[in-house]
Amino acid sequence: MTEKHEKTYDLVVIGGGPAGLAAAISAKREGIKDVLVIERYAYLGGILNQCIHNGFGLKKFALDLTGPEYAQRYIHSFLALGIDCLLDTCVLHMTPSKKMLVTSSAAGLQWLSARSVVFAMGCRERTRGNLNIPGDRPAGVLTAGTAQRLMNIEGLMVGKKIVILGSGDIGLIMARRCTLEGADVQAVVEILPHPSGLNRNVQQCLADYRIPLYLSHTVICIKGRRRVEKVITARVDKKLQKVKGTEKEMACDTLLLSVGLIPECELVLEAGVKICPQTGGPFVDEMFQTSRNGFFACGNVVQVYDLVDSVSESGHLAGKAAARYVRGLVPAAAGKVPLKTSPPINSVVPQFFGGRSIDEGANTWCLRVQKPLKEPVFWLKNQKGVLGRIPKPYAVPSEMVFINVSKYKQQILESDTVTIQAGERT
Hints:
By secondary structure, this protein is of the alpha/beta class. The protein has 3 domains: 1-124 and 260-327, FAD/NAD(P)-binding domain, CATH 3.50.50.60; 127-259, 3-Layer(bba) Sandwich (FAD/NAD(P)-binding domain), CATH 3.50.50.60; 336-426, Immunoglobulin-like (Sandwich). The chain has helices at 18-29, 67-80, 128-131, 144-152, 169-180, 199-206, 266-270, 308-326, 409-413, and strands at 7-14, 35-38, 84-86, 89-94, 99-104, 108-119, 123-125, 141-143, 161-165, 184-189, 213-214, 217-223, 230-235, 248-251, 254-257, 261-263, 295-297, 337-341, 345-349, 352-353, 364-369, 373-374, 376-382, 385-391, 394-395, 401-404, 418-424. The mean pLDDT is 95.
């Protein structure tokens, strides 16, 4: 199909998970009539459909919901608003002029264009190929998310004797899930000296089921002919290098990998949007607009969030801002102030602040620390000195730290650059 037959929308949201649904609903409620959501699966809800455990919606709805229950609340609102949707459809290419080539089994190839685009594609799991684990190439090596889908959607058991590499939240949850289905989970092995997942998941998924957690350990080799037969683990030092003499064999038939998530940024890059090396997602301002006008991003494509409630909030802000962009109601920024971090802070979102606070949530910044901090203090500094001092009860790498900068807004806008620093109270 040629570009001259393309259809133009006011707003196209790419991704029908929690971020994309929130963005589309928010934009529609802002008065944008011509909104389209493109989802590659045959149903809305994204990854939430396979997350049958509870713990969702505690902040957003003050309810303890399963993933499908949380998603269904947004799907109901989405359908009630009559928002257009293309399911079982993939976006193959995206141009900087907001033209996109999409494909589906029903309609084949077609070109679409938009006045505004919201990226909400989420993230993908790191695989064995990303880790370069040496050893044999047997069956039985899966990412934790793939195992979750096989068990919760397809009804298939992934193994009987399982080792999990990485203590990310999906891996912790799958340790419990596999145990409940009768598998023998040998251990969760984590290369870092602290868990990568939420503390509540460490307690509820490992400690409650007496599943061992080996910190500062990793898998150094996989053994097996047709199927995994065992893995070899070892302790690592502060530089994450193997400590000789600490090797240990663990018999198993399955190795699950829960070793981090990567934002899905292929389309973001095609659009000419700049990527932040710390988060792996696009640079955004407080409205979740990227480095290119009219392109917005939200959810796990911006950074990997720990709670779906935060994912939905970012979608709400991005959809609201995109709608106002289409209508020409977004005030111009006098100049976006770059936001920087220094250790032990790893990243901040947004990375630029223009003070265009269309929503109180736009005055909240998300930080991720590199190591646990007891009673931390976060300082905002510019070229003149300290702008603000924000204490928190604690900070750990697995949980985002949120700071509200409303009372420092004017001082931030008068800065050349704002740097966020952290330290422990003494």
